Amino acid sequence: MEVKPESRYRFLSIREYPKITEYITRFDTEATRVNSIAILIGLLTGLVIGVYDRTLQYSNTLFGMQQGFSLHEFPYYYVILMPALGGLLVGLISHYLIKTKYGVEGLIETVTLRGARIKLRDSFLEVFTSIITISSGGALGKEAPGVLAGAGTGALVGRIMKSPERQLQTLLGCGAAGGIAAAFSAPLAGVVFVVEVIYGELETRTFIPIVISSVFATLVSSTLFGIKPIQISPYQLVSPYKELGLYLILGLLAGLISTLLIRTLYYAKDLFSEIPLHPVFKPALGGLAVGAIGLFYPRVLGMGYDVIMDALNNQFTFKLLLILLFLKILAFSLTLASGGSGGTIVPSLFAGAMLGGAFGTAANILFPGTIAESGAYAMVGMGAVFAGTARAPLTAILILFEITRDYSLILPLMFACVLSNVMSNAMHPESIFTEGLRRRGFKIRKGREVDIMVSMLVKDAMVTHVQTVSEEKNVGTLIALMQASRHAGFPVLDSKGKLSGIVTLSDLRSKVKYGEVDKKIGDIATHDVEIAYPDETLEAVLKRLGSKQIGRLPVVDRRDKTKLLGLITRSDIVNSYNKKVVEKVRDTD
To answer: In what residue span(s) does the CBS domain sit (predicted)?
Structure first.
């Protein structure tokens, strides 16, 4: 009997198919899907940041704000009017085309309170207005718009992939991390920035995709576009014991400057909110003030990377460093508070470089030849002031480390960043990003676990189809309506359909005698009405309902308090609360 040689090829037996199916299924998981999408987001974010960076460079050249900008190249009126004209253009776009302004503060709110639902058109328009603001002389940075562009890219990819809400939060974080990583060529800093600032907590399911996206974004931006924002010469400790004491003092001073920067910004915001001027013209007014400062000290205009590098290379006197420090804080606050678009990261690095440079210059006068040059203190000051303003010491440390690629000053850098963070937190508990949220009633805690009542707005719970009554109708009609609907109160409208009051069962009992069914509803209604707005938190409305001992509030437009938008009751709030609790439990399962 002839034995046939065994073929190199064979068909799989039926028993082996389940094993292969099981093997494939292991890779077909949610984690694998998210990680794959994270690669795509990283690649796209790197491209977006590269295009943004090139566009900003061309725009800077167009406006005359490229590195090496000299006041003598332009007439004085151009320097004053350039930021004002840029501000006017930004004001027009912001008022007529952008409904929601984000920035880092808005991203924190979106991720924490809004389920990562970001308006893509608004986010990319805001990135565009940041180019106009910065290139026309606005004293802001490009990194926060980069974060927003990355977050918008992540959200766009998530929507195209029809990702659920929980995944959208992760993908938005992937884009934001890629934005920082690509802008600084600092992938680790991008990851930690999102964890420290935007999420406020570290979760295993979000960490790996964020790392993946950050790495790929950096790869694209550095390889294709060669983005390297700041080049710093390496420094090292000369007298460790003596200098650590000096860096301790620098860290405490950085905490003071961080607090000054935050408070100056929000004081300027309060000031501009009280100015009786149309919102379109406020950025122009801020730009005019910044241009006036730039007329005498043009180094405060724009981002100021070249000025930072000069400070790191010991090019400035003690007096000039202090002047630039305080004028930059003022110019930054005026630009952002008036409505300009841009970031807070580079201005805080600028302020830190000037503070550290001035401190290092003074220290070298006191201890000549025995400590490092002033540039070393300028570098540490950059990280320390950023850590104090953003409450992100790890991000500050990693950004400076990844820029320099040098460990020599890592110990004093860590020392100063932590001290600055502690000092500024003691003086002003909120960061530059969360202060605005606190002022609007949102309690954003470290760890980002927020009360459900704070995370939800009136518009999430209110009833929009409201049964109303006319003030011209009689009480008999009201009684019949209450009996038919089993509602104990209704908004009252005048002849023009405008809200004039509210009428309840208690009004009937206290103001109508037996048999007075022909009495007008307008005569018994309460006209001094407590109202609610769509953008208020449920917590604030619930407190008002409790303190006034009422059961319902009409919801009106902030710009027209007679325009009825809906009605919110205690039961609406309770039902929305219960629904949200169920959703959160489902997400954790």
So the answer is: 462-519, 525-583
Q: Which two tokens stand for residue 578?
A: 């219960």
Q: Residue 503's closest CA among 472, 532, 534, 533?
A: 472
The DSSP output letter for 265 is: H
Contact by Cβ (8 Å): 170, 367: no
163-167: Cβ within 8 A, 24+ apart: 163/37, 165/115, 165/116, 165/587, 166/587, 167/30, 167/34
> Where in the chain is CATH 1.10.3080.10?
26-224, 240-439
Q: What CA–CA distance (Å, rounded) separates 326 from 74?
A: 25
Is the pLDDT at 37 greater than 90? The verdict is yes
Type of residue at 381: G
CATH architecture group of domain 454-588: Roll (3.10)
pLDDT in tens, 69-81: 555 567 778 888 9
Query: Where would I find the beta strands (DSSP E) of 468-513?
Result: 469-470, 489-493, 499-504
Question: How far is 435 from 414, CA to CA, in rounded Å?
Answer: 25
Cα dihedral: 132, 136, 139, 140 (round 10): 20
Q: Which of 565, 529, 332, 315 is nearest to 432 (CA)?
A: 332
Q: What is the Cα–Cα distance from 380 to 586, expressed in whole angstroms?
A: 45
Residues 6 or more apart whose CB falls under 8 angstroms from that of 103 comprise: 126, 144, 148, 341, 343
pTM score, two decimals? 0.79
CATH code of the region 240-439 = 1.10.3080.10
Q: What is the pLDDT of residues 415-428, one digit of tens each?
A: 999 999 999 999 99
Residue 441: helix, strand or coil by DSSP? coil
- Residue 19's pLDDT is 54
7 pLDDT band, cuts 50/70/90, is very low
Where does residue 65 fall: left (phi above 0), alpha (psi -120 to 50 degrees), or beta otherwise?
alpha
- Identify which of 284, 295, 293, 297 has the alpha carbon closest to the alpha carbon of residue 75: 295
Q: What is the 3-state secondary structure (H, E, C) of 66-101?
A: CCCCCHHHCCHHHHHHHHHHHHHHHHHHHHHCCCCC
Structure tokens that stand for 221 in this block: 């931006």
- CA 255/CA 249 separation, integer angstroms: 10
The edge-to-edge listing of strands for the beta sheet with 469-470 is 469-470, 489-493, 499-504
Instruction: Extract the tokens encoding 313.
Output: 């290379």
Side-chain-facing half-sphere of 412: CA atoms under 13 Å: 29
> Where do the CATH 3.10.580.10 domains begin and end in the chain?
454-588
Whether 8 has a pLDDT exceeding 60, the answer reads: no
Superfamily covering domain 26-224: Clc chloride channel (1.10.3080.10)
pLDDT band at 153 (very low <50, low <70, confident <90, very high): very high
Dihedrals phi, psi of 289, to nearest 5 degrees: -65, -40
Q: What is the pLDDT of residue 559?
A: 79
Helices (H), 161-231: 165-184, 187-193, 204-224
Tokens representing 95 are: 């008022």
- As a whole number of angstroms, the distance between CA 256 and CA 236 comes to 25
- pLDDT for 114 equals 72
